[in-house]
TrEMBL record:
Residues 79-341 form the NodB homology domain. Residues 1-22 form the signal peptide. It is found in: Secreted. The keyword Signal applies. The keyword Signal applies. Keywords: Signal. Its main location: secreted. Pfam families: Polysacc_deac_1. InterPro entries: Glyco_hydro/deAcase_b/a-brl, NODB_dom, Polysacch_Deacetylase. Transmembrane segments: none annotated. It comes from the Bacteria. This is NodB homology domain-containing protein.
Length: 341
């Protein structure tokens, strides 16, 4: 009896520890009713998202505090979340910022400095970004002009590509530092696309890489490919978004695949879990536009995930989930993005 009680207490403490060292990052683009619906959310829906966070006692903190805590293995409060925007559109200033200010919620905007310097009309200028930063917004790097960073130019060698992308990232970072006086080394990958080589490069530069694939983040996450949950367009439905907001991060020891950007189709993914407070029988993966993935458990901790058929060209995902044993209404969530060439 005492042995069973000991194991129960130990399991509970481990489960709480895993949850306390995990968090969720939300990603938005437009807060608008007139721009493309696929990347937009209305002011009314955005307000409902924030009301949900408030009514359910979420701990909304700045992205730098969230990432720093995870990297240092610090304990985060339950239900910790960060809010981010990509591209720095004018409607972030006109629509999103006033709503966020009413709630007192911090947020991060990833911007393209070259587009700002060119005076592109659809993005905020440095003056607006500086104003928001003085109110607490973090301004960070989204590359110079939102190009596909992993794609090499015609006849460009890997060494030449590396020099070009390094210049892009570092010059963009310098412009943000000059204009905003912030120097958070976070790079949100344009279009959420990244390759192994790009991950290696941004790590060498001392940056954290942030994508657009789904999932919670934890101290065990790969900080060159952190996930975020998109919350705009199709993904703005609060009924489905709440499941994601309350999700947990699988504790993964090793992740093996050829490359996120690949001609290998269908690709294969191997996941080795450190420990799982979930049942293997309830673990499932789904392939974008195809359906349930094939699972092959190599041993008690390692599973191979493959698609039953070739993926479409362009962006796809494997989304893997499992209900938590300690809280079956909460799901562990992991997403593997692919760019099929």
């Amino acid at each position: 009896m005492y042995k069973k009680l000991f194991h129960l207490v130990l399991f509970t403490l481990i489960s709480l520890s895993l949850r306390a060292q995990a968090a969720v990052i939300l990603q938005y683009h437009h807060v608008s009713e007139t721009l493309p619906a696929v990347t937009s959310v209305s002011a009314d829906t955005f307000t409902k998202h924030l009301n949900y966070l408030k009514d359910n006692n979420f701990n909304v903190i700045p992205l730098n505090k969230l990432l720093s805590a995870l990297q240092q293995g610090q304990t985060l409060p339950e239900k910790t979340i960060a809010i981010t925007f990509d591209d720095g559109y004018n409607n972030n200033y006109d629509e999103a910022a006033p709503i966020l200010e009413q709630f007192g919620y911090p947020y991060t905007i990833f911007v393209n400095p070259k587009l700002i310097d060119e005076g592109q009309s659809y993005v905020m200028g440095w003056d607006k970004l500086k104003e928001l930063s003085k109110k607490g917004a973090l301004i960070s790097n989204h590359s110079a002009q939102h190009n596909y960073l992993h794609i090499k130019l015609e006849n460009e060698t890997t060494a030449q590509w590396k020099v070009r992308i390094k210049q892009d990232i570092l010059h963009s970072q310098q412009r943000i530092k000059e204009e905003i006086d912030q120097d958070y080394k976070y790079l949100a990958y344009p279009y959420g696309e990244f390759s192994n080589q790009l991950q290696t490069l941004i790590t060498e530069l001392g940056f954290i890489g942030i994508g657009q694939h789904s999932g919670a983040v934890s101290k065990d996450s790969n900080f060159s490919r952190l996930p975020r949950f998109p919350a705009s367009g199709f993904y703005s439905n609060l009924e489905t978004l709440t499941t994601k907001i309350n999700s947990r991060a699988f504790s993964i020891t090793n992740l093996t695949y050829q490359d996120s950007v690949t001609q290998n189709n269908p690709p294969k993914l191997t996941i080795e879990f450190k420990m799982g407070s979930f049942h293997k029988t309830q673990f499932a993966c789904y392939v974008s536009s195809i359906g349930q993935a094939n699972l092959n458990w190599i041993n008690k901790n390692t599973v191979e995930v493959t698609s039953p058929q070739a993926l479409k060209k362009g962006r796809s995902r494997f989304n893997c989930t499992a209900p938590s044993i300690e809280n079956p209404s909460s799901y562990y969530w992991f997403s593997q993005p692919w760019v099929i060439q």
